[in-house]
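Deliverable D5.2: sample structural annotation.
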Amino acid sequence: MNDFEKVELLDALFKHATEGIIISNSSGEIYLINPSCSKMFGFEISDLIGQNIDILVPDNIHHRHASHRADFMANPHSRPMGLGLDLFGKRKNGTLFPIEISLSSLIKKGEKYVIAFLIDISVRKQIEASVHEKQKELEKVAAALIRTNEELEKKVSDRTKVLQEAIRELERSRNELSQALEKEKDLNDLKSRFISMASHEFRTPLTTILSSASLIPEYSKPEHEDKRTKHIHRIKSSVNNLNDILSDFLSISKLEEGKIHADFYKFNLKDLLEEINSDMQLNAKANQKIVLAYSGSEIVNLDPKLIKNILINLISNAIKFSSENKNIYVSCIINESQSVIEVKDEGMGISEDDQKHLFERFYRGKNAFNIQGTGLGLHIVGNYIDLMKGHLYLRSKLNEGTSIQITFPNQTH
């Protein structure tokens, strides 16, 4: 390819590029502008050549823009402009629109020039706003379901109507969420996990409640007391499952809003572990035993509420993913530098593939599909550990069990 052909090729790239391209001199005067850029701002190319670049900048930042331009010319290098900031361009008609800008530089005949590459991101911003709105709607749905749960405790006769409406609301919300998430490709995986979880984890207890609530009137005679009690127990158990799911949702929401903080103070960790083990033993399967081993100082300076939530989650998982007759081992070692707590089971284990994603929201291992769970527990645990400046180490093999070790540096204040 000769020089003339190269020039023709570069000229074609400049004219037909979908990105806006502006070349200006060190004084900010526009030297060249491509058709995409002039169309973006609503000008003719001839209207802009020789004009100061500030004609395309919002009026309220003219004074700052000149200073930023001077700083760049003093140290020109390729970089994105306005990292972490929302940037706007001004059209010929005075309206503003969001843009992304990347800067580069060149020297021609001793003169410094700035090359700016511009992208109109109006559509992206609209999509982001739509996704944010759908997320707020989902939070409202979660809050509505909690209120429904409270009403379920008052009257069994009202449960059917309220839960039917909750199912319809959940279906509507799921459809709306699906439509919003489809507009953002990088959220597709999150959408699929949530829909899969919601379809199973909400529908199953709701179906149980509806069926039991409809059957209770059939057992009105005294001799039917056992059957009536059985259905009431099924309803209470399903309501508790729903409450656990909603609690996970609220915990995620509070974490993302920064409303949960670590409250450090000194307490007896050994006593807390014994209390947790005693409570969790009631949830264990047949012939499962929770074995506790403790060594070192009993007094630590951590957040007991977060510690309790972490251990309940880890021990619950160990129970859930282990078969009958398999023990759960909880150990704690406190030394001068750190506190180390480990929960170990001999259950179904986690594949190496799943371990990479285990702490993501709504992610569930492939071998846990038929076991109850939201895929939020370990995500919440990871956040709680971070709040206390701790670290988590996971070791697991399929069909050999799982060990989760958490360490916290000893807090001095």
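Annotation notes: The domain at 3-120 is CATH 3.30.450.20 (Beta-Lactamase). The chain has three domains: 3-120, 124-256, 265-409.
The annotation will be released with the project's public dataset once the embargo ends.
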